[in-house]
Amino acid sequence: MYNNSAKYSQLIKDEAIRLGFLSCGISKAEFLEEEAPRLEKWLKNNHHGEMKYMENYFDKRLDPRLLVDDAKSVISLSLNYYTKENQTDVHAPKISKYAYGQDYHTVIKEKLKFLLSFIEENIGEVSGRAFVDSAPVLDRAWAKKSGIGWVGKNSNLISKTDGSFFFLAELIIDLELDYDYPFQTDHCGTCTRCLDACPTDAIIAPQVVDASKCISYLTIELKEEIPTEFKDKMANWMFGCDICQDVCPWNRFSKAHNEEAFNPQKGLLDLNEKDLIELTDEVFTKVFKGSAVKRTKFKGLKRNIDFLKSS
After folding, report:
1. Where is each 4Fe-4S ferredoxin-type domain found (predicted)?
2. Which of 110, 115, 160, 136 is nearest to 55 (CA)?
3. Average pLDDT value for residue range 100-121
């Protein structure tokens, strides 16, 4: 069995890289003992803000065997989205790099579908589910457990070779595989650049983010009006925020992605400050077609831009 599990694991990893994933690690599907008290405390302190869905499926978030019957393995994958391209107008309201191209949920789900099919065709019948960000799975905990990287002070997963500009996803399957060693070392050291740079002081302690203060939360998750206490603290971000990643020394190792679907939408980076202040529903629909920005809808993005410009 050991030989087979080692052989199967390598097959899966090779195919994951062929499909364009940055890295692939595998861990045993079991209860996340270390994460349970952390998650409970985070929720108790209301650091999830209005994201009430984070309170749901508490047990499932900590135990993948409750998501997939007889789950044996969690296959963690990362997909690079880093680009050196930027918006041409430095005064224009800013958009996070991850949303330049097509919605990552769609792109990654397609790749996971291919990977699951590959496993079934080359190894045998397996039962499993694919997860991309929107399900009750603690992506970073599994990625760390499978050796992909460590959780930095900004709470992002960081890789020594690739930085942190990547998405995380999982396949949870009922096949026993060869398991990778968890990433044990924290390579942030005494660095506090992310904590110092956050304009809203959302990183309240190493690895603890109060989401209700985070610019990404305020511009995407929050459905009500942005609280006035954040006037002049948004650093001109209209969708998401990259500050804590931009200042991270490990991102000097980030390399440009080669995923065509993540290339900037036509005309997106050329929208200047005036274009965005005067943004119409028609232009929004055209420029952000198939983009993660659609999540805010026109009304939400307009709210964000108006808030920035009223500061």
Report:
1. 179-208
2. 136
3. 97
